[in-house]
């Protein structure tokens, strides 16, 4: 719970105010877990929490569709460079005098 429901600011100084705020954080954490179980969502709780806060004013079905939507971009990971090929091409340009550094 301490990773996802952080109490950054205490809104009161009395013991009851602090207890109430801690209880509210625990309740919101439990509700997030219930939503995760209801949706059968296998992703992280942090991603689910971000989606819930982003679509908090939308309908539940809209949030559910957005959560399970496939990614729009296809990221293939890091680019792999053929350093030997780049070196050969650069050396060829230097020898021919066409290299523009």
From TrEMBL:
The keyword Membrane applies. The keyword Membrane applies. Keywords: Membrane, Transmembrane, Transmembrane helix. The chain crosses the membrane at residues 20-41. This is Transposase. It comes from Natronobacillus azotifigens.
